[in-house]
Amino acid sequence: AISNGSPYGQMGQALTQISARVQSAPEESVLRNQRRVRKTRLAILKPLLSTITVSWLLSVPLVAFALSRPPFPVLFIHGLASNADDSWGLFSDFLLNNGWRFGGTPEFNPATGEVFGFNEAVNSSDFYAMNFSDHGLPLPSQSLTLEQQGIQVAAVIRGVLEANPGADKVILVGHSMGGLAARAYLQSLGVNRYAGNVSTLITVGTPHLGARFAELCQTSDLCLIIQVDRNSVAVGELRPDSAALFALNHPNNTTSTSLPGGIHYVSIIGTGKISILSGLDGDGIVDASSQDLSNVPGTSGLLLESDPIFIQDRSDCGILIETHTCETSDKAVWAKIIDEIALTPPPPAQGDISDFVERLYQQVLGRQADPAGLQAFVQQIETFGTVIPTVLAFFHSQEFLNRHTSNAEFLTTLYHTLLDRDPDPAGFIAFLNDLNSGLRTRGNLIDIFLDSQEFADLASFLPPLDSLIAFVTNLYVRILGRGPDLAGLQSFVAQLQQSRTVLPTVLILLHSPEFLARNTSNTEYVTVLYRVFLDRVPDAVGLAGWVALLTQGAATRDQLAAQFAASPEFQAIQHQLFP
Question: How far, in Å, CA of 41 to CA of 521, rounded?
């Protein structure tokens, strides 16, 4: 609800009317309605909302009224050479004094893998401000790589969601390098694996394209004035030419992935100071262009906003001629963050399983559902807790195969059925070329679409799937090309719970008559291993190397499976299955 005392209350009735008009259209899906509401809100209300919020925030005392609670828990992330209190302490006080509930300062312990620092006295909190594990060092928060920071962000998010029963996503607000740490998690940098649990990412003064200030730090001890070590790993990764930034900004699905869809991205860009070295406008440390996520290649299809804000040069800003270090205490920045949180769509209303099955009948088979079939498939989804076996049953059905769809028609059906939208031109052409060239099969594409975050958002009417059930389901899909039968699913889940290791279960499926009857080539077999163990498509060099071992007789297929299972990349995944 929108509090009547807040600046948003003045527009609550208008928002309600807009939402009602859009959501009343019977031909639109629930998610499409929400996207239209979001776009309408932004187009009509953003200029007015920002003006009202800034003027209100600058004029009221700290205790003014109860802010509307956020739709998801908010996690604030600090940046380089800082900590939760230094970066977000003043804003936290403001939020706390205006009705938000503070859940604590969670921190990941690398030695134990546990997250501590939650406020045990407060349940279902509104916001948290995390610390990285190196924040207490003499030169704080600069000894972790972006990959390591992403791991810690992921662990804290899991802890926040465990402390908020019923919440399945968080809103992330990252300052400076904290925004890159959030991206490291979202883009599965290194061993990170994004779990689809972020609604919005707001970055403040984040050097998405790097900061030339890092180059200055590496060639001078000047940065010791602000507690930055010229030799720290963090400074090295903030250089525009660093390998870590290249991986984030040029993802290859091996070391990193593209920024996921289904997330609202906001770049708050500090301006008003000429950045050191470059001579360009920014906050004195990071150029404005580098703070803008829309300048990162491949982001054009995302829901993304860029908001420049002139940062007041106050006495509490840094020693150097910059305003970067006081962005998180700037009231105009606070206002923008509050705006974006207020405009974040609430959790989607649970849809009806029968609606999804109806869409399968209409899009895949081209007809209305018969009552008996509809009831049977709804019951199947409720029994398994996932739609994957049902989706595969439709696409593998003789009725669909008898339609003799072309590759273009098949791909269009995938988009309409699993993403509930028309194909985007770039994605459509890329997938179509893969099909026509034989690089991917139709089964591969079904797997990729079912594995996408966009599909996961559409299937949000289902409760979160147990991780072992999800893993076994994926084993069936990736090894046998079908969903599991209930008896097999239950048997393999029980086996994994007892053994707490994956390889024996995988080998049973790889040795099954059903898989052996597929007569996979060495290339196909290695691709299956990548999908099963590493949850990704193979990189070209790795694929060629493994296939060569099989072709030359230097290793058996079982030996290759054992090597994949023993790899650090899979061990990190297995640790998440059996923490």
Answer: 52
Residues 18 and 41: beta-carbon distance below 8 Å? yes
Q: What is the pLDDT of residues 128-156, one digit of tens each?
A: 999 999 999 988 999 999 999 999 999 99
Start-end of H helices in 438-512 = 442-450, 453-458, 467-475, 486-499, 503-510
Mean pLDDT, the chain, integer: 82
Q: Of 383, 578, 402, which is closest to residue 489 (Cα–Cα)?
A: 383
What single DSSP character describes residue 261? Answer: S
Question: Measured between alpha carbons, how far is 562 from 569 in angstroms, rounded to an integer?
Answer: 13
pLDDT on residue 343: 77
Q: Is the pTM of this model over 0.70?
A: no
Task: Name the residue type at position 141.
Answer: S
What is the C-alpha to C-alpha distance for residues 265 and 172, in angstroms, rounded to an integer? 10
Q: Which residue has the higher pLDDT, 167 or 115?
A: 115
- How high is the pLDDT of residue 13? 39
CA-nearest of 544, 546, 542, 539 to 562 is 546
Pairwise CA distance, residues 147 & 155, whole Å: 13
Is the model's pLDDT at 417 over the cut of 60?
A: yes
Alpha-carbon distance of 221 to 559, in angstroms, equals: 52
CB 57 within 8 A of CB 331: yes
Express as a percent the part of the chain with pLDDT over 70: 84
347 confidence band (pLDDT: 50, 70, 90): low
Q: Which two tokens stand for residue 352?
A: 């009806």
- Percent of the chain scoring above 90 in pLDDT: 42
Which structure tokens are listed for 482? 């079908």
Task: Using DSSP bridges, classify how beta strands 104-109 and 127-130 pair: parallel, antiparallel or unpaired.
Answer: unpaired
Residue partners of 107: CB distance under 8 A and separation at least 6: 115, 116, 117, 130, 131, 132, 133, 135, 156
For residue range 50-87, list pLDDT tens digits in order: 444 444 444 444 434 457 889 999 999 999 999 999 99
User: What secondary structure, in 3-state letters, does 203-214 show?
Assistant: EECCCCCCCHHH
Q: Are 390 and 483 in contact (CB under 8 A)?
A: yes
Dist. CA 42–CA 53, nearest whole Å = 15
Report the amino acid identity of residue 225. I
- Gyration radius of the chain's alpha carbons: 25
- What is the three-class DSSP state of 37? helix
Tell me the average pLDDT across 360-375: 87
Identify the pLDDT of residue 62.
Answer: 40
- Alpha carbons within 13 angstroms on the beta-carbon side of residue 271 total 12
Cα atoms in the Cβ-side hemisphere of radius 13 Å centred on 383: 15
Q: What is the largest CA-CA distance in the chain?
A: 76
**Statement: residue 416 has pLDDT above 80:** yes
Cβ-contact 532, 478 below 8 angstroms: yes
329/67: higher pLDDT: 329
Q: How far is CA 448 from CA 413, 414, 456, 508, in A?
A: 14, 10, 12, 24
**Taking Cα atoms as reference points, which of 4, 114, 125, 122 lies closest to residue 68?**
4
Rounded to 5°, angle at Cα 448 from 442 and 454? 130
Tokens of 375: 């009831």
Beta bridge partners of 203: 174, 267
